[in-house]
Each structure stands twice: as C-alpha cells, then as structure tokens.
Amino acid sequence: xxxxxxxxxxxxxxxxxxxxxxxxxxxxxxxRRGARLIxxxxxxxxxxxxxxxxxxxxxxxAEKNPRLTTSDDLFIADMSLEEPLEPEFxxxxxxxxxxxxxxxxxxxxxxLEDDDESEPPTARxxxxxxxxxxxxIHAAQVVAAGRPICGNCGRPIDPVGxxxxxxxxxxxxxxxx
Length: 177
Known about the structure:
The structure is a single chain. The chain is an alpha/beta fold. It contains two helices and seven strands, in the order E-E-E-E-H-E-E-E-H. A seven-stranded mixed sheet has the order 1-7-6-5-4-3-2. A hairpin with a 4-residue loop joins strand 5 (about 90-100) and strand 6 (about 105-110). Helix 1 (about 45-65) runs antiparallel to helix 2 (about 130-145). The longest helix has 21 residues, at about 45-65. It starts with 5 loop residues before the first strand and ends in a 33-residue tail after the last helix. The mean pLDDT is about 85.
C-alpha cells in the first residue's frame, strides 16, 4: 500500500468529538487543510487510546530531545466538530508516527474492509506537536464526558441505573444526576 486514500499533510485543524446522548454517542476524528475536510468515524475506546498514545508520544519526544520547544501555549479556541458530519470511513485501526525533519506527528488510520476484495481505505494526517497535544487533551475530555464508570465492575452506568455483577444481585447501582 504505497498511497493513502486521504492524505492531509500539515493540517490546519485536527479534533475529535462525539454526537448524541450519553450511551449512544458516535465518535469522530476530523481534520481540515484548506477547503478539504476529512471526517472519520471511530469507537469511543479508539478515541481514548488515541488521546493516551499522543500524550505518551509527545512526552517521549520531549524526554529524548529536551531542546524541542514545548509550545503547549498554543491557544485552540474551538475544538468542536465541523458540519457536515459525513465520515469517509469507519476506523478499524490507527497508528502514530513522528517526522523529525518536519517536526510533525503523523496519524495513520485504516478503515474496515468491504465485502469486495478492494483494499480498505486509509488516511494520513500530519499535524504539529501543539496541535496534537490539543487533540489529546480535548479527546480525553470528550471521552470523559460520557456515562460514569462503575467502580466495582468497570462498566458504564446508565442514567436509569446499572446491574453490577460484582454486587452479587444486591440491586442496581444508581448515580446522582
């Protein structure tokens, strides 16, 4: 696979977000370069893992090369998703890389395979370290804004309650609204 289906080099904007009520949200990763807008549908856990992986990568880069500017002072006023929300594909897997020559973080995404024998769609999005730090912070906030997690079993707690197998049949766990 030498070419990417979608290739946005040095994006001007990159974000993640979710649409819908808690427990039914649809998650997206979105990037813009000029007039070109790419939206990818993702799972909540993929967005969580992406935020964590970006943070780890940026921390590792800072440790290995302390002379790299931290530039965490980049002010990102609006990290909301842009309309229209028409995903190019649903993400199957993602990966991160770093282009040291251009000081850009590369996000690679591969879509789910179709039933036909064509190759799955792919996307390559590159952004500055401050843009990716802002993405990691915002994506973690988006994921955390969902349903609270049960401290006993680790499953999400619905607004109407939650049956927790760890409570051995002793009623549902309720949350305060």
